[in-house]
Amino acid sequence: MRLPLHVLALAGLLLAAACHGGKPKTTSQPPPPPPEMYPGDETRCPVMKPASTDCPASSDPGHVTLRRLNRTEYNNSVHDLLGDTTQPANDFPEDGVANGFDTNGDLLSVSTLYLDNALLAAQKLVDTAWTAETQPAVPGQQFSDIMPANGGTDTEMGIHLPPGAELDTTFTLPGDATVIATLIMTAGDGSMAAGFDVLFDGQSAVVPSVQWSAAAPTTFTVNAPGVLHAGKHTFVVRAKSDDPSRWVNVQGGVYSYRPVAVPFEQAHLRVCDIDQGGDACIQQILKTVGRRAWRRPLSTDELTALLALAHGEPSQPSWSEAERVEQGVRDALVSLFASPNFLFRVEVDPDATSCAPHPLEDHELATRLSYSLWSTTPDEHLLALADACTLHEPDVYAGEIERLLQAPQAIAFVRNFGGQWLQTRKLASVQPDPTLFPQFDQALREAMQAETEQLFTAFLNEDRAFPDIIDADFTFLNDRLAQHYGLMPPGSMTLVRTPLPSGTLGGLLSRAGVLTVNSYPTRTSPTRRGSWVLGTLLCAQPPPPPANVPPLPDTGMSGGKTMKERLASHRADPVCAACHTTMDTIGLGFENYDAIGEWRTTDQGETIDPSGVLPDGQAFQTPADLAKIVKNDSRLNACLTQKLFTYTLGRSPTNQDSVAISALNMQFQQDGARLRALVKRMLTSPAFTTRRGDTVATP
Amino acid sequence: MPRWQLSRRAMLRGTGVAIALPFLEAMRPHRSRADQKVFPTRFLTFTVPNGIYMERWIPVDTGANYTLSPLLQPLKELQNDFLLLSNLGNPAAVPGGPGDHACGVAATLSVHHPHKTEGSDIEGAISIDQLIAQGWGKATRYPSLELASIQALDVQTSETGWNGTYARHIAWSGPTQPLPQELNARNAFDRLFTTSSGGGRRYPRGSVLDAVRDQANRLRQRLGATDKAKVDEYLTSLREVETNIGNTTMVNPGDTISDDRSDFQGQVRSMLDILTLAFQTDSTRVATYMIGEGGACTIHDFLGITDAHHYLSHHGGDPDKLEKLATINTWEVQQLAYLLGKLKAIPEGDGTLLDHSVVLFTSEVGDGNAHSHTSLPVLVAGRGNGGLSPGRHLHYDDNPPLESLHAAILQTVGFPQATLDGRSVTPLAQLQG
Fold first, then answer.
1. Exposed / middle / buried, residue A56 (Cβ in 10 Å: 0-12, 13-18, 19+)
2. Within 10 A of B256 (CB to CB), how many other CB atoms are there?
3. Minimal CB count within 10 Å: which of A229, B283, B336, B363?
4. Distance between A376 CA and the closest CA of chain B, angstroms
5. Which residues 201-260 of A are in CB contact (within 8 Å) with B?
6. Is residue B47 less than 8 Å (CB to CB) from chain A?
7. Any bridge partners for residue B194, and if so which?
8. Crossing angle for the helix pair A635-649 and A658-670, nearest 10 degrees?
9. Which residue(s) pair with A252 in the sheet?
10. ∠ CA(A304), CA(A310), CA(A316), 5° rounding?
11. How far is A618 from chain B (nearest CA, A)?
12. Cβ separation A309–B183 shorter than 8 A
C-alpha cells in the first residue's frame, strides 16, 4: 500500500525542515574578563604557591621559555587530534636547534613565514577532518511498506489513526546514519498535546511539543534515538490510547538521514550530530575538541567566545541556516588549531616574575610528560588524570611514566631523543656515492635506521647497563642488513633480535647507521667518527683554539698511501694536533668499517692497521679494544644525563644546572646505569616537575 | 602603497599551462605618470656555499673590457651588466678556530662577528638587506623575501661550536632574529601569487583571526617577559600575515614551478623565476637567496658529481676534486646568469629591471680549501638605478672589508643613513665610474 499522491507532493515542502535543525539561539558575547583573570584558571588544578619567595640556587628549575611545538611534535599532534597523515609541518620553516635538539623554546620562534604556514595548515586540517567525518544529509526519502494497523485506515486525507491505532512503515539505510523523520499531521480535536508516539525499531523517540493547529496541518520533526545501523528499520506512528476522543491523521511523512562516516565516539571533530543536537551539540564539539587541542579544559569564557564565533555572521548571503551553522562551527574549530594555546605548550606561573619554584599544574605536567616521551599531545588517559588533579601524585605520576614508556608511541623518544643525540636521524638524508656503493639502497637505509632504534629501545626497556650499548653482544637484523654485515641472514624481512657470534663487535660504534652518518659520500672520515665519539658520546669539549690563529691553508691529505699516513698532516701542526690527535686516533680505529659500515681489511690495496695510542696512554689493537675504552669512559654516562636534561627541559643547561645534572648522574650510577631508571629520575626531578617565573624584567 | 597593475587582457591571456610572458610590459607603477618613470632600486643577494675556485674566478686583468675568467664565462653576454670586485675580505667572518662556514654566512650581510655558541644564546646583528627592507617600510606587500634551496633537509647540524642556525641564515632582522627561508618553490610561489587557473590558498576567515588574536592577548597577560616576547612574535606575525591575505598578485609565471622538492635543480630554477616575478610585480624590493647553506654537502648528481660539495671544496690541490669543483662553480654561475638574463629581459621605462637592481653574488668563504675570508668572490650586477657603472673588474689593493661595499650599496639603493653593526663605514669607491 502507498500513501496517496498528495502526500508525496507534500514531501517536497518538507525537505528544508528535514535537513535543517532549529535555528540556534544567538549568544551575545560577554564582557571581557578582568585582566587578572586568566583564561582556563577555573579549570586549572590548584597550584601550590611557593612557600617562600626565596630562590635557592640548589633547587632552581631554571626558566623554560614558552615552547612552540616543533615540526615533529606538530605533525604527531595533528595526527592524534585530527587523524592527519600528511605531516603539514614538513613544509614549515626549519626549527632552530640548540645543543643538538629541536626542543629548545628560545629557538622555536614564530616568524611570519611560520605563522603563515600554521594558519593555512589549521584551515586545511579542519576542512579535511571535518569533511572526512561529515557526509551530506540525504533528504526526502520515502518510507516503504506503509500499512495502517490496529484500526488505522487509509483515507483521502491521509492515514487516519483512532486512539491505539498505528501506522507501520519501514525504511532501509545504506550505512550507519542519524535519521530524522518529518511528519505532517492533523489532530482531530485541535488538542494541544501531541497525542501520539513515534517508534524507531520499537524504541520511542522524543516527539517535540508543537502547538497543533486546527486550521492547518502541523509539521513534526522527530530524531531517531542515536545512530541507526545499516539495514532495514521499522518506523511506527501510534495514536495514544488514553483518550478515546482523540485521533490523529498522518497526511504525509518522509525521512532524511546523514550517513555517519565515523562513529561519534571515534570522531576527531564531529563528536555529535549538529542536525539533531543543535546548540548543545555545538557546545559539546567545541568543549571536546578544545580540551584535546589545548591540552586542558576550556574555561566558560573561552567556550563562550568560541560559541560566539560559531554563531557568527554568514560570509555567503545565500547560505542556508544549516550551512551557516556548519561554517561557524568549522571556523571555531580552525581557531582552536591556529591558536597560541595549541601552537605553544603553555605553562604559567602564579607569579610570572618570581624565581621561587612551584610545582607544575597537572595539565602542564601531562603535556611535558607526553611531549617528552611520545613527542605528541597527551592522550585521554593523561588528560583525565590531569582533569582529576591527581597526576602529580607520586604513585599516579610514576605509573604514567611507566605506561608511556611501555607504549608503542615511546618510539618517538627513541627517534627524537636518541636519534638527535646520536645523530642517526640524519640517516634519512645521507647520500653515499651510488657508483662506489651501489648496494646502498632505501631498504638498507631503513634497516640501518631501524637497527639503531631497536638497539636503543632495548637499552631503554631492559635491565641493562647503558654503557654496554657501546659494544653490545646482540643486535637487530633482517636479511638485508645481515648480508651487509656478512652475518647469517635470520630469514626475515623485518628486523629480529640476533645474538652476535663471538669475535664480531656489536654495539653503537660498529653499527652501519652510525658509521654511515659519520662518513663522506665517497669515503670514510676518521676525523668525523672521532669527533662523534668525543663530542656526541662523551660531551668532551675540544680545547679552545689559540687566539688569533689565521686559517691554515689545507695542504690536503695527499702524500700518503694509507688514510693514517694522509691524516698525519692533521697532527703535524701543533695547533691542529690539539684536537686532531685524539679525534683522528679514535676515528682511525674504525677504519675497518667502510663509508657505509661494511667490514674490510684493506683500503685501496693497503692493509688497514686500526691500532693506536690515545694521548692519555691507553693503547688499543682492534675496534673492540677501542670500544671497551669508550665504554669505560666515565664521561659517557655524564654526557647522556646532560643530553637528556637538555632534551626534556627544552633549554640550554647553564652552569647552575651542573648541580642538578651531577645529582641525576649520581643516581644513574646508583641505579646500575640503566637508561630507563635515568629517564624516570629525570622526569621526576624538580627541574622537570617544577618551574619558576622569569627574572627578566617585563618591558 | 603603490600597487602594480596588470591589464585585464594580460591576466586572461595566461589561462592554462605555462607559456611565455610578454604581458608584463602592461604593468606600470600606479604613482608614476607616463612622463615620470621612477622605478625603485631592488636589492638581491645570491649566495653560494663553500666559496669559489678563486684561481679560475679572478680575471687576469682589470678595468673595462677585461678578459673574463673561466668561471665567469657563463656571464659572457652580461659582461657589461656587472662589476667584478676582487680582494675584498670580511674580517667579521673569521671564527678564530673552526666554524668558518657558520660564522661566514651569519657575517656576510651583517658584517657582525656572531656569538660563538651551540646553545640557544645565539647573537648576530641586523643584516643590510633588512636595513633596506626597513627603509622601504610598507611600500610593498612583502618587506623582504627569504628563499633558499637546501638539499639535505631536516638536518641542521652545528659546526664545531657554532649553532647550525648561523650557517643557515644570511638575513637577520635583529640580533636574535634570523629570518627563516621558504625552502619549497611551490609554496613560495603560492604565497606570493595566484594564476589565472586559480590556485591560491585558503586562510582562516577574518573572524577566526580576530579570535586567535584575542586568545593570544589573553595569554600574554599572564606571562613573564621572555614568554611574552614569544606571544608577541605570534601577534606581530599575525598582523603581517593578515596584511597579505587575499593580496596576491595574479601572474602568469611563464615557467613551470617545480612541485618536486627533491628535484634540486628544478627547485633552484623555480626560485629564480619567483624572485624575478616578485621584483617585477613589486611584491618586494629586497630578497636573499641561498643555494645551499654554509658548508653545504649538496650532491650535484645532475652534474654527474656524487661527492658532497663541502668535501670537494677541501680539495687539497687534488686535480680531480678541483675539476669537480669547477664544474659545480660553473653551474652556480650559470644560475646567476639565468637570473640576470631574466631581470634584463624585463623592460622598465627606458631601461630594464636589471638596470634598477643591485644583485650581490658572493659566498661565506673565498677559497673553500683554505676557508679564507680575506679574498671573497664578489660580483655586483645591475646599474642600481644609475648608482653603479658595471662592465668593469675592480681590484682593491688595500683589501677593504665587505662592509665598505655594503655602505656603498646602502647609498645606491637610497638609504645612506643606515648603519651596519653600529659602525660608520666609508663606502667603497669607484663603483660609479
1. exposed
2. 12
3. A229
4. 19
5. none
6. no
7. B250
8. 120
9. A184
10. 150
11. 25
12. no
Determine the pLDDT at residue B253.
65
Axis-axis angle for helices A362-374, A675-684 (nearest 10) = 150
- Cβ count near A473 (within 10 Å): 13
What pLDDT does A124 receive? 95
C-alpha of B194 from chain center:
22
CA distances from B205 to A161, A592, B208, B210, B246 (A): 52, 61, 5, 9, 11
Bridge partners, A182 (sequence order): A221, A254
Q: What is the pLDDT of residues A82-139, one digit of tens each?
A: 999 999 999 899 999 999 999 999 999 999 999 999 999 999 999 999 988 988 889 8
What CA–CA distance (Å, rounded) separates A76 from A37?
A: 32
pLDDT band at B199 (very low <50, low <70, confident <90, very high): low
Reported ipTM: the value is 0.88
Pick out chain A residues at pLDDT < 50.
1-28, 31-39, 548, 550-558, 698-699
Task: Provide, as residue numbers in chain B, all residues whose Cβ is less than 8 Å from the Cβ of A551.
Answer: 94, 100, 370-373
Which residue type sits at B290? M
- Cβ–Cβ of A429/B153 closer than 8 Å? yes
CB contact under 8 A, A106 and B120: yes
From the list B212, B191, B186, the residue with the least C-alpha distance to B201 is B191
pLDDT at B271 (0 to 100): 96
**For residue A28, what is the DSSP state?**
P
Chain-chain contact of B157 with A344 (C-beta, under 8 angstroms)? no
Q: Do A353 and B168 touch (CB under 8 A)?
A: no
pLDDT of residue B200: 63
Do B370 and A554 lie within an 8 Å CB cutoff? yes
Average pLDDT, chain A: 87
CA atoms within 13 A on the CB side of B77: 12
User: For B334-355, what is the mean pLDDT?
Assistant: 96
User: Residues B364-373: pLDDT tens digits?
Assistant: 999 988 888 9
Nearest CB among B121, B155, B158 relative to A426 is that of B155
Backbone φ/ψ region at B137: left (φ over 0), alpha (ψ -120 to 50), beta: left
B392-395 vs B82-86, strand pairing mode? parallel
Q: Cβ contacts of residue B325 below 8 Å, gap of 6+?
A: B53, B312, B313, B315, B368
Distance of alpha carbon A343 from alpha carbon A337, whole angstroms = 7
Is residue A275 a contact partner of residue A303, using CB atoms and an 8 Å limit?
no
Q: Residue B365: closest CA among chain A residues belongs to which residue?
A: A551
DSSP secondary structure code for residue B401 in this structure? B
Amino acid found at A149: A
Give the 3-state secondary structure percentages of chain B, helix then strand then coil, rounded to 5.
40, 15, 45
